[in-house]
Amino acid sequence: MIPYGRQTIDEDDIKAVVDVLRSDWLTTGPKVDEFEQAVANYVGAKYAVAVANGTAALHAAMYALGIKPGDEVIVSPMTFAATANCVVYQGGTPVFADVDPDTLLIDPKKVEEKINLKTKAIIAVDYAGQPCDYDTLKNITEKHGLFLVADACHSLGASYKGRTIGSNLADLSVFSFHPVKHITTGEGGMITTDNESLAERMRKFRNHGITMDHRQRDAQGSWFYEMVNLGYNYRMTDFQCALGISQLRKLMSWLEKRQNIAQKYDETFAEIKGIEPLALKANIRHAYHLYVVRVDKSNTGIHRDVLFRELRSRGIGVNVHYIPVHMHPFYRNRYRIVAGLCPIAEKAYDQIISLPMFPGLSDEQLAFVIGEIKRIRSYK
Ligand SMILES: *Cc1c(COP(=O)(O)O)cnc(C)c1O
Prior knowledge:
This protein is an alpha/beta fold.
């Protein structure tokens, strides 16, 4: 089966992990600082905080912003459930604002309609790896005194008007290092920010709310520490961070591979009626975490589900990203949500399919995927 996404692990990655396993520090050692510095430098942020996974990173972001019961946070429905779950962890209420029909990115006009006195923040998702409309979103958050959080789990390496995602386009930017993402540490996550006090709050949060970590105490020759807030154990290990450092060195070349694959798909779908890639905005660099097309049944005669089954039966591991978050039973039941809350996301969900997209996808595999799509399209 050709998967839709997959990690690339080279010998130098393996060596980096093994070296740490032979060292004194397995967790919260020098590799954590080094990985944080490397990511902060890469994205152009002052601070980076490494945590156990992207979901913990989102949770830390909501905690740092002080989200609490009674608060509302506006989120995109076209995302993984964790984007909204992090609001619920803090007792807040996620409020879903519909997406733009062409890009499936959160629509700033819909965001503004949802703002009220309870609204505290907006979480924008760079869906598939394409940056949201940050200038417009930032204008909205500044006008209303809100925080802007970028769920950038799809967009490491992307840029908006020449500014790298993870820089101060948003107050906090959240990344994941799950194996399907751009670089992997097995499990891992990071938050980048230019705000020192938010970074400090998240550093304590990932370590039970304790003032100093083990290594800092050692360095000061002291046993003393205090727990000042309620936190969690959301730490990342040193061997994961070593893997992350090694992976990050290859990010640029992997992004180029993703872009080359996208270009071949784009050329293909320019000639196939009824199977449309998502629209590309001007002035952005797309990181292509996903390559998503919409299948228009009225034009192709094929429903997305048919294309999905046909491709899967040929060993092509396509996927659907995503069931709109508000349609999951948890959200429907808890917030009494019915279909129609976000009609554009719901309609798109019926049509979208994610095609194989990862740096290790070979030319032969790509040609096979494209050939099979053409065949299925023409005999229906
Ligand atoms: C992967 C992902 C997450 C969660 O990351 P984990 O590291 O798996 O916890 C959150 N949001 C989006 C948009 C993602 O793609």
